[in-house]
Amino acid sequence: MNTYDKYSLLKQNALIRAGKLCCDLKEAIAGTELDFTTGRLGRAIFLLSVPMALEMLMESVFAIVDIFFVSKLGPDAVATVGITESMITLVYAIAVGLSTATSSIVSRRIGEKNQEGASAAAFQAMLTGFVISLFIAVPGFLFSRRLLQVMGASQVIVNEMWGFTAIMLGGNTVIMLLFVINAIFRSAGDATISMRILWMANLINMVLDPLLIFGIGPFPELGIKGAAIATTTGRGLAVLSQLVILVRGKKRVQLALRHIRPDWPVMKTLIRLSLGGIGQHFIATSSWIGLVRIISIFGSTVVAGYTIALRIIIFALLPSWGLSNAASTLVGQNLGAGQPDRAERSVLITGRVNMIFLGTVGLILILFSEFFIRLFISDQAVVAAGCEGLRIVSLGFIAYGFGMVLVNALNGAGDTVSPTIINVFCYWLIEIPLAWFFSFSLGLRENGVFISIVIAESAMTLSAFWIFRKGKWKFKQV
User: Other CB atoms closer than 10 Å to residue 298's CB: what's the count?
Assistant: First the structure.
């Protein structure tokens, strides 16, 4: 074969691969009926991870859109959103924990080809989330002013802007159900539905926010209360759409009248499994609060740089969380299908892909850190602090890419205890003490905090890999 023929063959193969990739991408976004317990794992991972990554990006848009419009109302309005969001952290923690438990059970039933069991478990998850949300909604709505006072809000916020908090806490049911039902779709393999639901919710929120906040056209000018109504309406209509799909759609999970009854053993299992996920969220959140407390000693400039760097890092990690969710679904379904070896291979392949992806992202952030920080602020001192933090933390992206996949895989198998223990060990017993030691005993100041983050995330990966290789998760019954 001459040089020209070799070149033509290479070009032809490249075009074929590109065509297959485009077809897979189209299928991933449009939706697929693929059985994820058979066929090529690489393709299964791709078809699941693309819509899951896009879904994670859409979830972050809610906060960005709200703060963009609310910021036009002044600092008190922005502070109201910040204080309320800190209280809603409890809702997110419970929603994430319950979603983790739901994914574990539903994916296992789907893998067993037990769609009836998956549908029954789905309703129990929704019922559990609804009941729990009521215990937050009622006192949250009735005592919103008092809660704002306890959180240290100014009298202007307490007297004039309490409506935002009352609506957000009172309407937390839509947050809870949105998380849980999207977890049902993802774990069943219908990740595209979750993605589209959040697209719709965000679009409604984007349109209603300026209309209700500023009173454009026939809409009343509601100020910050309008932002709460817009967000709750967007999520509420999304939940309504989810329910219609579950009842009238022809997807892997379908609800019928026979499923609409309490099943206490299943609800008990959901609550037991969700406690691990809730604990993981609280442990990680509290560790970040501890780091901020240490960093605050070095002044507001450093805190500002750290805050901006953290926002960039979280946004960069969103696609990786989508990949990790794909691993969780594949583990649950393949364990349900009695294929633990395929479940293990899916984790290793996904982990390798995530390491390559996050390693590339980390390299970009290291090389162009100043560019990304300056997108948010131009103050040179803040830029310098943010760049240093962004560069150091990005060094750990490769390890973290594998670690988050391993942790989600253990959760997907129904082992929520091991990741909780890992979080306690890495975040409370390693990260916080090391941050203090490096910052003050070694005199590294804020850089000591950044270094401790890299060490803690690397320790998390090593710990999760050790537990993963032991293989006890393969025999977990849910």
Answer: 16
Q: What is the pLDDT of residue 126?
A: 96
8 Å CB contact between 373 and 383: yes
Which amino acid is it at 442? L
Question: DSSP code of 261?
Answer: S
Of 255, 277, 300, which Cα lies nearest the Cα of 103?
277
In the block, which residue shows the tokens 């699941």?
A: 48
Give the whole-angstrom CA distance, residue 99 versus residue 182. Answer: 8
pLDDT tens for 145-187 read 998 888 787 888 889 999 999 999 999 999 999 999 999 999 9
Which residue has tokens 């896009």? 54
Q: How far is CA 289 from CA 42, 43, 220, 455, in A?
A: 38, 39, 38, 18
Cβ atoms of residues 308 and 382 within 8 Å = yes
Cβ-contact 194, 52 below 8 angstroms: yes
* Burial class of residue 374, CB neighbours in 10 A (0-12, 13-18, 19+): middle
Structure tokens at 181: 């039902």
**Dihedral sign from CA coordinates of 381, 384, 387, 393:** negative
- CA separation, residue 336 to residues 135, 181, 276, 339, 349 (Å): 34, 20, 21, 7, 19
Cα–Cα distance between 281 and 407 in angstroms, integer? 12
CA distances from 412 to 106, 377, 476 (A): 10, 40, 10
What distances in angstroms separate CA 131 from CA 87, 178, 247, 250, 267, one per listed residue? 19, 14, 20, 27, 11
What residue ranges do the domains of the chain occupy? Answer: 36-262, 279-478
Structure tokens at 399: 């390890």
Angle between helices 224-248 and 41-70 (to 10 degrees): 150
Structure token pair of residue 293: 């407390």
Q: Please answer whether residues 102 and 184 qualify as being in contact, where contact means their C-beta atoms are separated by less than 8 angstroms.
A: yes
Nearest-angstrom CA–CA distance, 27 and 32: 6
CA 175 to chain CA centroid, Å, is 13
Q: pLDDT class for 455, splitting at 50, 70, 90?
A: very high
- DSSP letters, 262-322, are --HHHHHHHHHHHHHHHHHHHHHHHHHHHHHHHHGGG-HHHHHHHHHHHHHHHHHHHHHHH
Q: Which H or E element spans position 348?
A: helix 340-367
Count Cα atoms within 13 angstroms, Cβ side, for 449. 26
Which tens digit of pLDDT belongs to each residue from 25-72?
787 777 777 888 888 888 888 888 888 888 877 766 666 677 678 878
What is d(CA 86, CA 248) in angstroms, rounded to the nearest whole number? Answer: 37
Token pair 């537990």: residue: 467
